[in-house]
Amino acid sequence: MSTKSGWVTGIGLVLFASAVCAQTVQPYRDWILGFRFVPPPGWHVLESKDKLGEVSLVEPASKTLLLISVVPAPGQKDDGRPATPAQLARLGQVYRKRLAQSRLGSTYKQFGLLGAQPGRTGDFNTATLLFKGVPTAATTPEGRILVSVGGDRDRLVTLLVVGPATFYPRVQPVAEEVARSFRLD
């Protein structure tokens, strides 16, 4: 009898482990500002206690942060057209200054714009900017900072990815997947 119950217990554990591994990641939903997205597997989701509409995703292995910020912006509406080169250049200048004045300015002394292109977050257009962060300390690796900004339905959405340059090729597709899954309710 003990062999049969051991076998049943073993099968039960295998089925349970399979069910746990097969579980899909649950979408994150902010009911107050009305947005949702699917976090990538293995990333930790942290809600900001200080700022409404701000969610951080952290991937411990690469020390990469993906920050999603949704703020009310009366009159913000997607016009259905991708960002123009002039708009991208202007946003590149604006965000270079914002990054330098933010807390990242203590980690990186200079932000060089590596690229700017139109993009999409969910079902609205965005401007996507990629910066190189030149570290202030020799022990800090060069950084990559991706900013995707746009909005619709009276809300401005910013996705910010910050991490070491060496991990950026692996992290970029994950950030794109989060952007594709993002929806304003």
Your description of this structure?
This protein has 185 residues and is an alpha+beta fold. Helix content is 28%, strand content 39%. The protein has three helices and ten strands. The strands form two sheets. It has a seven-stranded antiparallel β-sheet with strand order 3-4-5-9-8-7-6, sandwiched between helices. Strand 6 and strand 7 form a beta hairpin. The protein is globular.
Please summarize what this structure is.
The chain is built from 3 helices and 10 strands.
What are the salient characteristics of this protein?
185 residues, alpha+beta, seven-stranded antiparallel β-sheet, three-stranded antiparallel β-sheet, globular
Distance between the termini: 56 Å
What would the average pLDDT be, to the nearest integer? Answer: 85
Q: What percent of the residues sit in helical stretches (DSSP H or I)?
A: 25-40%
Biggest sheet, strands in spatial order? 3-4-5-9-8-7-6
Could you say which overall geometry the principal axes of the C-alpha atoms support? Answer: globular
Radius of gyration: 20 Å
What is the makeup of the main sheet? 7 strands, antiparallel
Strand content: 35-45%
The run of helices and strands is HEEEEEHEEEEHE
Number of DSSP strand runs? 10
Low-confidence residue ranges: 1-23
Return the structural class: alpha+beta
Tally of helical segments: 3
Topology:
Elements: H1 2-22, E1 28-30, E2 35-37, E3 44-47, E4 54-59, E5 64-72, H2 85-101, E6 108-121, E7 124-135, E8 143-152, E9 155-164, H3 168-181, E10 183-184
Antiparallel strand pairs: 1-2, 2-10, 3-4, 4-5, 5-9, 6-7, 7-8, 8-9
